[in-house]
TrEMBL record, chain A:
Coiled coil: none annotated. It comes from Pseudovibrio japonicus. This is Sarcosine oxidase subunit gamma. Signal peptide: none annotated. It comes from the Bacteria.
Automatic annotation (TrEMBL), chain B:
Gene3D superfamilies: D-Amino Acid Oxidase, subunit A, domain 2, FAD/NAD(P)-binding domain. Keywords: Cytoplasm, FAD, Flavoprotein, FMN, Nucleotide-binding, Oxidoreductase. It is an enzyme of class 1 (oxidoreductase). Pfam families: DAO (PF01266). This is Sarcosine oxidase subunit beta. Its cofactor is FMN; FAD. Signal peptide: none annotated. Its main location: cytoplasm. It comes from Pseudovibrio japonicus. Belongs to the SoxB family. Its EC number is 1.5.3.24.
From TrEMBL, chain C:
The gene is soxD. Pfam families: SoxD (PF04267). This is Sarcosine oxidase subunit delta. It comes from Pseudovibrio japonicus.
Automatic annotation (TrEMBL), chain D:
Keywords: Oxidoreductase. Residues 907-992 form the Aminomethyltransferase C-terminal domain. The keyword Oxidoreductase applies. The lineage of its organism: Bacteria, Pseudomonadati, Pseudomonadota, Alphaproteobacteria, Hyphomicrobiales. Residues 618-887 form the GCVT N-terminal domain. This is Sarcosine oxidase subunit alpha. The keyword Oxidoreductase applies.
Length: 170, 417, 105, 1000
């Protein structure tokens, strides 16, 4: 099989870490305009915005950079009734997209999770080599990794070596 | 017991070894002893030997649940050094090095104590500061330990990678020449043979099930599958099983038992002489007299008695060794194994009396007690015989965890072994 | 490499995502100032270190981030149960202690 | 080519000739040959020398269990030499060079062989009993000699030129071994649709099918059945086949490590191909179909080149088309060697005799032998082997009922084939701590209780025929599927012409020669003889573990594959105990020796470990910074101008900062966003300081202890709003602090409404320090007032700087007027460059960590981890002021009341001024009472920080000193090897003690 899988770094996107207790998710969902997903690993989307549930009280909200203020405003408004933590982490991370026929296998060079179990549209926090990443399956053959900025070169370096390995055909 | 020498060896060879005798008899468990030592590792067997030799106490049994020397004594990477920071530790470990030197002759058993030197690599400014602190403290304590520049380190140990562009460049090293290694099994066997020759009973395959206390609270004896044995004094030296045994005497300990793994490569001709340790990249290495590279690192992350350990740590350890010694990437791992080490909160041993009359404790050596074997055994025997600690082990009390008087070598430097 | 069932993620996941965090069910004393030195030592340092079923904490660090409790056999390394922080230790029937590999018959 | 190849036999590619060298001599073989098969095809048997006695040795097996034929290999070029490679495994390729080992000057004439003459001296454990006198000889004479004579090959001398890889793989079923049982299991499972991975260490699937003379399977020749099966298997999308892939270890929860060799058989590997890959396979179910290993017989001279396992000879014949000799004697205690004899006889080898120690052997075998004119010697034994570098004759003896042996003369031969029965391969099963049970009838250990979800099939369960192996493989697959709640259709594979057999197990072949004079080897490589094992027992080594360690039996590179069972039998015999009571030593990973590179995988050089860099790091690199590693980060240490060393650069950076302004990349500082209504309460509980009253827009120094009362971390904490704090930590402490906070929050204080988010990498942090700091910032503040009144020391605000959203702190770690600007990370460098341009107007410098250290030390600010070490309390560090006096509790508070924490003699942090202002003390130097010169010394403490202070024109230092506060103003000594320095104890603030500059 010729190797056509690609690794690219994506432009900055808006990212918030959202935390709250379960009883407040309803209020927060209402102000966001869409339901926060309720199982870890699940994502919900509305237009250009999405929320991925990473932990029992934790979501990763993403949006275009310019929509950050809207999200922030709507959640600030609801804070008195539904306390929560909203923290901008847009710049904390860099997104890497891996796409192509062997995307899954390429990631399995350093990711101990069983990636076959990660369905399209879902995402989890996991580990890639020694680096914590948020890994989302964007499509059958497409993944996105959100990596803390200073760890990204290591992840990209490993992926580059792995690509060369795949290209060798062995 | 006949003496080992080149001559007896020759005689044996010529007579077809007709005269060989057991190095230690397979003793029957008696019903009562003056002292019972739980655990036939180097420390326990050594204590029995010194009890007999220095204190004339020979009605002694050393009881082990398995084969003697089969605990950590039989599975450690054999690094011996005494360049510890604190006075208390330096005194204890240096006492051991003094005894190591001459132990073969004393025991009439070649324990192959080899003062090939231990080199500890510094990879960042913090390491440099910390190692220099050790060096100066050691010098003022009369313990040899000197600073080497990267070039000096390379001169002593040619395969070392001192490239300044390495991920962890070598910024220098602390070097103790009197430090080195010894043949682990021979230490247990040598002490066993010498202790048995002085009348000590060595009982193998006999797990100590519980320590029993009399009405006055003092020890009365212990329970084994072979029955109850009375004892005036009981000394526990049961690394990897200390908490379990002591619990039966009602003494709860500040210990946690972790798997510690080690591995060897296939044997090759001598390639470097020293022991080289790098705490920052997490690995250490030496080459045994048989030629294999002996490699170890830190404990696995979770408590366990399984002597198993996982693959990730091994992978990391080997990657680390290959960073420091890139020429070894094409060497092969022959075998890996695990031990169970009892770790104290301050990474220093507990060596002395306990709240129970007649019960003595030697434990908590964690990842680094082989080096202490003769010294620790020697002062432990003193403590048992006199019912009071030797000045050298006096600071290593159990009560320090209550007062806060810790001997925190780890906090001071994060250096293992 | 162990596989650990995270009670929050409800999935068995590789050990590499987790960190061991010591014995479980050691509550921080309500009023530390009133503790004797010996009681405080017990809280700080004394551990059961059992050979057998051990209640311990783990954190799904590279996952949901939660600390949770587990009962694991320290001889076989097998997990017997994992449960959320705050829940009592479950009563589990012992799977039978593993044989001690150093024992010789 | 030569007369050792047999036409029409073997699976080598006769169309492709391959040249390689051995000890400098060029040889030819075929594609598909191993070094051993190719050398044997050239009539070469002598391939190595043993460890201790340097006895000449040839290959005894045809597989990875080979103890003798170990060679050095290389494909040429630097960094590609490898020692101790099994010639029986290494495939040949054009250009391969190989060398023999452990000999001098040559394999043929090896001086070390004198050891063999002295063998009586070198009995097991001899070195424990001698080399002790004179004591001084140990270091200089004995040990160097012992060392030099140990070891097998030589270590590589150059860094490895190749790369290595790794992969995780998850599957429903992993099958280890592709012999008949593994193949049958794979077929069964693959047809049922589950995910299957099938691995085998050989280059081809087939296992023993490749070696045995053809049977008919399902009506086809075994060869075509195998070809069809392999094709079928390769066609399943749900099945992955891996060859040259060895399962090396069976770890927790059905994780099996598989080391796959990728290029060591290729003449020209693709440029970017890794040499080997470590697969970490996590399987729901595992089938171990590893087969069985043939056991050698133990008799005098059983190690001579030309003495070989019968099955190995069969393999060389059937798989490689090589006959290992012209005239062979077969000695056996098992039927299987008879079949080997028949195969060889049919290929034209003269089988001089089959010597079987048993009294009766099936009529069928005897008839087959007679058909081939083979002389049958039942109840006979081989008593010795003659010939040094190659078998020339063997002495036979007749065994009488009482075990007495009477010699019947010698037989000439060039080959002696032996078979002592078969040992089921249970290595991987043993890694799982699965128990073994003793099958008394067949005298083998078989799998007992399991601890993992695994199934053993075929030879591993002591099954000896192809039919049984096929059936068992099907059965194992069905069981594996059943435990997943699935079923698999039955599959029947019918074997015609199957060979079954049985045998007995001998500890040593009977002989009348003195037991202690025989050279009957048990562990070939380590030169352990039966005598050594018997002696060890007599010396009191009653445990098999002691026997192993005393004799080194089983510790060679085959890890006892050849020797364990024979060692056990002999020890049991000597002990007078049954074998199961003696027990086996533990099998440990790896199954076969595995390169370090394979374990290390991608972790090499730059990828060995993460190197974290800030957004500004690239600027520093372009501007000539010298870096230092700090935890995972690399940080700019100083910025030398042309001709400057570190000290010059640091002195200048200090001068410029104090005189005007300096700029510093502080981005690596840890940052944690603490948010929620209970944020202040949470910080109250964590930190020593009080937080409730800190107003939004203000910040405060925070001190964090461990529960043991010792300092763990510190940093400035700013209150952004009522419910939101911006916490900073030390660079190295960031992860630790967040973990500690989460631990307390989640496990102790889950009642608090507060959440923590790491923001270390959200922000780039630029610190501006110096009297002109304000001037640098002001132009970019869009009118925001930075005056001391509007924005005093320890104030913070959210604003924009240079158009970037920012959090601006007025803080100082230098004692000068200071600001720290936090902007989103990706803008760090852009802002840095803007400010750098502005700085040019004000003689601004950029400085690194070294200058930062000096400047803070001049002010007596501590660095956690340098001035404290995990044994220092806030009081010790002179930070009592940071403890909220009214707080009922905080982490670590109780510990501060423990008796030892209250002693006045604790080590306390002080300043030191040397008598000679030009002496810069060494960090780590120890302190004693003035005038004390004793050794061992009474040490009072040590120097924690020490610098040349350009500002003060003299050296300064900080130290942890016993009773230090009380000693203020007194003298102490710092004894160094070359000279003792005297110093005066002072406070820790050396510069601007009133703190005026900070408020400018
Ligand atoms: C992989 C590894 C590497 C190491 N490397 C080094 C090193 O390089 N340098 C160094 O100095 N130290 C090292 N150590 C530590 C060192 O091995 C130990 O500290 C030391 O050997 C302890 O000796 P011991 O005699 O106290 O205990 P052990 O040798 O462990 O003996 C304790 C004995 O107690 C027995 N026992 C336990 N429970 C019972 C019971 N209930 N009844 C009867 N008997 C019982 C055990 O069977 C055992 O034989 C290492 C340890 C390991 C595991
Ligand atoms: N003639 C006899 O009396 C006799 C005796 C014993 C065995 N046998 C034959 O042995 C066969 C038994 O079949 P089987 O399938 O059980 O065994 P097998 O020996 O045919 O196959 C086992 C395969 O597993 C591989 N293997 C072993 N360990 C491995 C590891 N760790 N990693 C990767 N691969 C590994 C081996 O190299 C081999 O290819 C039968 O065909 C039987 O006839 C015959
Ligand atoms: C210093 C040292 C060197 C060793 N060298 C070898 C060796 O050359 N070959 C070998 O097979 N095992 C070697 N071992 C490992 C032992 O075989 C064994 O694994 C170890 O003692 C633990 O015992 P266990 O594996 O039986 O549990 C060595 C062990 C030590 C401590
Ligand atoms: Zn989880």
């Amino acid at each position: 099989m010729t190797f056509t899988t690609t690794v690219e770094t994506l432009p900055t996107m808006g990212r918030y870490n959202l935390r709250c207790k379960r009883e407040n998710t309803v209020a927060l969902s209402k102000s966001l305009g869409f339901d926060l997903p309720s199982s870890i690993g699940e994502a919900a989307r509305s237009g250009t915005q999405s929320a991925l549930k990473l932990g029992p009280d934790e979501w990763l909200l993403t949006c275009p950079m310019e929509e950050r203020a809207t999200i922030r405003q709507s959640l600030t408004d609801v804070y008195p009734e539904a306390v929560h933590s909203l923290t901008d982490i847009s710049s904390r991370e860099i997104s890497i997209r891996v796409s192509g026929d062997q995307a899954e296998e390429l990631l399995s060079t350093s990711c101990p999770r069983n990636l076959a179990k990660l369905s399209t549209g879902c995402g989890v926090r996991t580990i890639f080599d020694s680096v914590q990443v948020v890994l989302m399956r964007e499509g059958d053959r497409q993944f996105r990794l959100d990596v803390w900025r200073s760890f990204a070169p290591h992840v990209l370096g490993l992926l580059a070596v792995a690509c060369a390995e795949f290209e060798s055909g062995l | 017991m006949s003496k080992f020498s080149a001559l007896t060896l020759l005689k044996g060879a010529l007579t077809g070894y007709k005269n060989v005798e057991p190095q230690w008899p397979d003793a029957e468990l008696k019903s009562e002893y003056d002292v019972i030592i739980v655990g036939a590792g180097g420390h326990g067997l050594g204590a029995a030997y010194y009890l007999a030799k220095e204190h004339g106490i020979t009605n002694v049994a050393v009881i082990d649940k398995g084969w003697l020397g089969g605990g950590n004594t039989g599975r450690n990477t054999t690094i011996i050094r005494s360049n510890y920071l604190y006075d208390e530790s330096a005194r204890l470990y240096d006492h051991a090095v003094d005894l190591w030197d001459g132990l073969s002759q004393e025991l009439n058993y070649n324990v192959m104590f080899s003062q090939r030197g231990v080199m500890m690599l510094a990879h960042n400014v913090h390491d440099v500061q910390s190692f220099k602190r050790h060096i100066h403290a050691n010098r003022l304590n009369g313990v040899d330990n000197v600073w080497l520049t990267p070039e000096q380190a390379k001169e002593k140990c040619p395969p070392l990678n001192i490239s300044p562009t390495a991920r962890y460049p070598v910024m220098g090293a602390a070097f103790q020449q009197r430090a080195g290694t010894a043949r682990h099994d021979a230490v247990a066997w040598g002490y066993a043979r010498a202790a048995a020759a002085r009348g000590v009973d060595i009982i193998q395959n006999c797990p100590v099930l519980s320590i029993e206390r009399g009405p006055n609270g003092a020890v009365a004896g212990l329970q084994t599958p072979r029955g109850f044995v009375k004892a005036k004094k009981i000394a526990v030296s049961a690394a990897g099983g200390t908490s379990v045994v002591m619990d039966t005497a009602g003494v709860r300990l500040p210990l946690e038992s972790y798997p510690l793994q080690a591995l060897v490569s296939e044997p090759v001709k001598p390639i470097f002489p020293q022991v080289v340790m790098s705490n920052t990249v997490h690995a250490y290495i030496s080459q045994s007299d048989k030629g294999e590279l002996v490699i170890g690192s830190g404990t696995d992350q979770y408590v366990s008695y399984s002597q198993r350990g996982g693959l990730p740590l091994i992978e990391h350890t080997i990657a680390s060794i290959c960073e420091v010694f890139p020429i070894f990437r094409r060497m092969r791992m022959l075998r890996k194994w695990g031990g169970v080490v009892d770790v104290t909160p301050d990474r220093s041993p507990i060596l002395g009396k306990t709240p129970v009359q007649g019960l003595y404790l030697n434990c908590g050596w964690g990842t680094g007690g082989f080096k202490a074997t003769p010294g620790s055994a020697h002062v432990f025997a003193h403590t048992i015989a006199k019912d009071e600690p030797h000045p050298i082990n006096a600071p290593f009390t159990l009560s320090r965890f209550e007062t806060g008087r810790l001997i925190d070598e780890a906090a001071a430097a994060a250096v293992a072994h | 490499m162990l596989l650990i069932d995270c009670p929050y993620c409800k999935e068995k996941l590789p050990e590499l995502e987790f960190e061991y965090a010591g014995q479980a069910h050691i509550a921080r004393p309500e009023h530390p100032a009133e503790q004797s030195d010996a009681e405080w030592r017990d809280y700080l340092f004394i551990r059961s270190n059992v050979r057998g079923d051990h209640a311990e904490q783990w954190r799904h660090t590279h996952g949901c981030g939660r600390y949770f409790n587990a009962v694991r056999n320290t001889v076989s390394d097998k997990f017997i149960a994992t449960y959320e922080i705050g829940q009592p230790r479950p009563t589990v029937t012992k799977e039978g202690e593993e044989r001690d590999e150093q024992l010789e018959s | 080519m030569n007369n050792w190849r047999v036409d029409g036999k073997g699976r080598i590619n006769r169309d492709k000739r391959v040249r390689f060298t051995f000890d400098g001599v060029s040889f030819e073989g075929f594609e598909g040959d191993t070094v051993a098969s190719a050398l044997l095809a050239n009539g070469v048997h002598l391939m190595g020398r043993s460890f201790k006695y340097h006895r000449p040795r040839g290959p005894v097996t045809a597989g990875s269990e080979e103890p003798n034929a170990l060679i050095g290999t290389s494909r040429g070029g630097s960094g590609r030499f490898e020692p101790n490679t099994r010639a029986t495994v290494q495939e040949i390729y054009e250009g391969l060079t190989t060398v023999s080992q452990n000999k001098w000057p040559s394999l043929n004439f090896d001086v070390g062989a004198v050891n063999d003459k002295l063998h009586k001296l070198f009995a097991a454990g001899f070195y424990y009993k001698t080399f002790m006198w004179p004591k001084s000889f140990w270091d200089k004479v004995y040990e160097p000699v012992i060392r030099a004579s140990a070891g097998l090959g030589v270590s590589p001398a150059e860094p490895d030129a190749d790369t290595y890889a790794s992969r995780y793989l998850h599957t429903d079923l992993l099958i280890v071994g592709a012999g008949p049982s593994g193949l049958a299991a794979a077929l069964t499972a693959a047809r049922s649709g589950v995910d299957v991975v099938l691995v085998d260490e050989h280059r081809e699937l087939g296992g023993s099918l490749l070696s045995e003379a053809p049977t008919a399977i399902d009506g086809k020749s075994a060869e075509s059945w195998l070809a069809e099966t392999v094709a079928e298997l390769n066609a399943y999308p749900n099945l992955r086949v891996m060859t040259r892939a060895t399962a090396i270890g069976y770890y927790h929860e059905n994780m099996v490590g598989v080391a796959e060799k990728l290029t060591d058989h290729l003449a020209e590997p693709p440029a970017t191909a890794p040499r080997e890959r470590m697969w970490r396979i996590r399987a729901q179910e595992v089938i171990l179909a590893q087969g069985a290993l043939e056991r050698p017989l133990v008799f005098d001279g059983n190690d001579r080149p030309g003495v070989m396992m019968a099955s190995a000879a069969q393999t060389y014949l059937n798989r490689f088309g090589v006959k290992v000799g012209n005239a062979a004697v077969v000695v056996t205690s098992h039927d299987s060697a008879w079949y080997a004899a028949f195969d060889l006889a049919d290929a034209g080898v003269n089988i001089a005799a089959i010597v079987d120690v048993r009294a009766s052997v099936s009529e069928h075998l005897q008839a087959e032998a007679r058909k081939r004119d083979i002389s049958i010697k039942l109840e006979h034994t081989v008593t010795t082997v003659l010939g040094k570098k190659r078998v020339s004759r063997v002495k036979l003896g007749k065994v009488s009922e009482d075990g007495n042996v009477s010699g019947i003369g010698t037989v000439s031969c060039d080959t002696l084939l032996m078979c002592g029965g078969w040992t089921p391969s249970l290595h991987l099963f043993s890694h799982t701590k699965g128990s073994l049970h003793w099958d008394a009838e067949n005298e083998v250990f078989l799998p007992g209780e399991k601890t993992e979800r695994c199934h053993i099939a075929g030879g591993g369960r002591g099954l000896w025929s192809q039919q049984a192996a096929f059936d068992d493989g099907v059965h194992a697959a069905q069981q594996a599927l059943a435990s997943r709640g699935q079923s698999a259709p039955a599959l029947s594979i019918d074997v015609d012409g199957d060979r079954t057999g049985s045998g007995i197990i001998m500890e040593e072949l009977p002989s009348n020669d003195d037991k202690f004079a025989r050279r009957a080897f048990v562990d070939f490589q380590n030169d352990v003889t039966a005598k050594d094992i018997r002696l060890a027992v007599r010396e009191g080594m009653l445990s098999i573990e002691h026997v192993k360690r005393f004799t080194t039996n089983g510790m060679a590179t085959d890890q006892g594959k050849m020797s364990n069972m024979n060692g056990l039998k002999i020890a049991a015999d000597e002990l007078g105990r049954p074998a199961p009571k003696v027990g086996l030593t533990t099998f440990r990973p790896p199954y076969t020796p595995t390169s370090f590179g394979t374990f290390a995988g991608y972790h090499k050089d730059a990828l060995f470990e993460v190197t974290r860099k800030t957004n500004i790091d690239s600027w520093a690199e372009e501007n000539g910074a010298v870096f230092e590693p700090v935890s995972l980060w690399r940080r700019a240490r100083y910025f030398p101008k042309t001709g400057e060393g570190m000290h010059g650069a640091v002195a200048r950076e200090c001068r410029q900062t104090r005189a005007s302004v300096g700029m510093f990349d502080a981005s690596t500082l840890g940052k944690i966003e603490v948010v929620g209504p209970d944020a202040a309460e949470f910080l109250n509980r964590m930190y020593t300081n009080p937080w409730s009253k800190l107003a939004p827009g203000r910040c405060r120094y925070g001190l964090l202890l461990g529960e043991d009362g010792f300092i763990r971390d510190d940093g400035v904490i700013g209150r952004i709003s009522n419910d939101r704090f911006h916490v900073t930590t030390t660079t190295g402490g960031a992860a630790r602090v967040l973990t500690m906070m989460e631990h307390f929050l989640q496990t102790e204080w889950s009642d608090l409404d507060v959440w923590l988010t790491s923001t270390t990498e959200q922000w780039s942090t630029i610190a501006l320090n110096g009297p002109n700091a304000r001037k640098i910032l002001e132009p970019f503040m869009e009118g925001a007032d930075l005056s001391a009144e509007a924005f005093p020391h320890m104030a913070l605000r959210e604003c924009t700087v240079g158009g970037f959203e920012a959090r601006l702190f007025r803080v100082s770690f230098t004692g000068e007027l200071g600001f720290e600007v936090n902007v989103p990370s990706e803008h760090g460098r852009a802002l840095w460059e803007i400010l750098y341009e502005e700085g040019k107007k004000h003689d601004m410098c950029v400085y690194g960590t070294e200058t930062m250290h000096v400047l803070r030390a001049e002010k007596g600010y501590i660095i956690v981890g340098q001035d404290t070490d995990g044994t220092v309390t806030p009081v010790d560090a002179g930070l009592s002021w940071a403890i909220g006096k009214k707080k009922p509790d905080f982490v670590g508070k109780r510990s501060l009341k423990r008796p030892d924490m209250l002693l006045p003699t604790r080590k306390q942090l002080v300043g030191l001024l040397t008598e000679d202002p030009n002496v810069v003390l060494e960090e780590g130097a120890q302190i004693v009472e003035a005038g004390d010169t004793a050794i061992p010394a009474k040490m009072l403490g040590h120097v924690t920080s020490s610098y040349w202070s350009e500002t003060l024109g003299r050296s300064i230092a900080m130290a942890l000193l016993e009773g230090g506060f009380e000693r203020n103003g007194t003298s102490i000594d710092i004894p160094m090897p070359e000279k003792t320095h005297r110093a005066t104890v002072t406070g820790t603030v050396f510069y601007d003690p009133d703190g005026e500059r900070i408020n400018m």
